[in-house]
Each structure stands twice: as C-alpha cells, then as structure tokens.
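Researcher: Next entry in the queue.
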Amino acid sequence: MTAAVEVVLGSASPARLRVLRQAGLDPRVLVADLDEDGLIAELGAAPPAEIVSRLAVAKADALVPRLDSADAVLLTCDSMLHLRGELMGKPHTPEVARARWKQMSGQSADLLTGHCVTRIRDGAPVDRATDTESTEIRFARVDDATIDAYVATGEPLAVAGAFTLDGLGGWFVNGIDGDPSSVLGIGLPLTRRLLARVDVDVTTLWAPDAR
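Model: Structure for this entry, 211 residues:
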C-alpha cells in the first residue's frame, strides 16, 4: 500500500490552519524563523506580487532542512495589503495599526497572498510551484473612535493589512472581489492548482474522516 503524502503547513497562522482543516486536510505545522522585514528591504522596488511570492518561497527554503518526511508537500504563504502603491504587512504596534486604518477607511485595496507548494521526497525538495492571489477589499468608512476601539482589542496588530475578514475586522469590510480563503491566508483554489503542478491531487490529501 502506498504511504500517504504528509501535508506540512509552514505557518503560525491560526486562520490558515483553520482554512485547511475545514477543507479536509490535517497538516503538521512548522514555523520558519525568517527576517521578513529584512527580506522585504532587500527586494526593494520589486513588483508587489513578486514580493509576497518571494517571501513564501523564503519560508519554504527555511523549513526544508527541518523536514525529514519521506513523502510530503510543504505549503507556505505570505500576505500583504497593497494600498495606493504601498505594501502593508503586520503593523505590530497600536500606533502603526491606527495610522493604517486611517488610510484604509473608506478605501479599496488589494490583499496579495503569495503561495508556494514544495514537493518533498526523502527530506529533499524535488519540485515547486508558486503564484500570487489578489483579492480586492472594500473597507467601510470608520471614525476615529471605532478605529481606536478595534486597535485596542489587539487583533489588528499581528495580521497582514491590520484587519481580519473572519474576526472583529469583518465588521468593517463592506465586501470583497475574489477568493475569500486567500484573504484568510491561503487560497484553496490556487493551492489546488499548485498541487496539481507538482503532480499531487488534492483529494488524495484529504483526511480519512473527510472522504
């Protein structure tokens, strides 16, 4: 009997893990130790879609030496918000989150999520597919008191673009055009296509209780 392909999620994001579990996968989680800000600085004026894709690849490269699976697929992603020519990652501090929401209020922006699928055999990468998903986000117009209340929850500090779609931030998103799972951190349709490019059928990765 052929051994099952192990699914490894290279991310600490609870939202990405939740998306995959709800879609029938049960991945092992590994987290890359990566200086994302330093890499973004090195990439300089590269196109936004390339930056998030390169970050996803860098996470995979950092994790491959830690994998000892005989047969696995490693899924890594990176998300950033593109607004008026500026790429916005995680704000980290209340001051930055507050300033970003004042920029985002009443505006539309593109949530870019770079995806990388790496095929692993005997602990080594043998194939890889990458791409970026873009989804338009239409933000509600919110006043300063509402921004302060949201920032005070702490939720926007550690998420790309300083907002969530499936949490408190969802109250302030009027709508999206594109893939909602990509806004949550990992696009299921794009991941399925990337898996196919490395010769993996997503249905073979579903956990037994999902089939």
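Model: The mean pLDDT is 94.
Researcher: Noted, moving on.
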